[in-house]
Design a protein that fits this description.
about 170 residues; mainly alpha; membrane
Length: about 170
């Protein structure tokens, strides 16, 4: 078998894909958008508290996940203003928090939306067939199990990739 390494460009010949001015502009735009999202969600959570809505509901958990996601993304992109190489060489915990945890939060948000939809469907079916009430508990367990499995795989991959990069 012939190796596919013959077509690789040497590292000395690599140049950035975008000029530094464009990169700085994109960093500023993303940081601003994530910060605006953060403050928008933060205001919505305060409105939930102010108007006395149910504090632990699908809506508040969804908003809390979005708030944490926006905060982590804003923090990551603000690091790029100061020192980009240092932001790419973080320790294991900051690396996981800034790069991997937002992916977990996105998965948890998707799982939460699917769980809400499943609950609506089950409640509609239980009115006609009461024996289906136990199915919702199984669905909740499956979603929690899938979320924990995703989190475990994500943390494991982050630790392994950080060890590999250190070597």
């Amino acid at each position: 078998m012939e190796s596919n390494l013959s077509g690789l460009v040497p590292a000395a010949g690599l140049v950035p894909a975008l000029p530094p001015a464009v990169t700085l502009g994109l960093t500023a735009a993303y940081t601003t958008l994530y910060a605006l999202l953060f403050f928008s969600v933060y205001a919505q959570l305060w409105l939930v508290l102010l108007y006395g809505h149910k504090r632990l509901s699908y809506q508040t958990v969804f908003l809390a996940l979005c708030l944490l996601w926006a905060a982590l993304r804003t923090t990551l992109f603000s690091f790029y203003f100061r020192d980009t190489p240092r932001a790419n060489r973080l320790g294991p915990l900051p690396f996981w928090l800034l790069y991997c945890c937002p992916v977990c939060l996105q998965f948890f948000t998707l799982t939460l939306m699917n769980l809400y939809f499943a609950q609506v469907v089950f409640k509609a079916k239980v009115k006609r067939r009461p024996e289906m009430s136990r199915g919702l508990l199984a669905v909740r367990g499956a979603f929690v199990g899938a979320s924990l499995l995703f989190l475990l795989v994500n943390v494991l991959c982050a630790v392994l990739s950080h060890r590999r990069r250190a070597q």
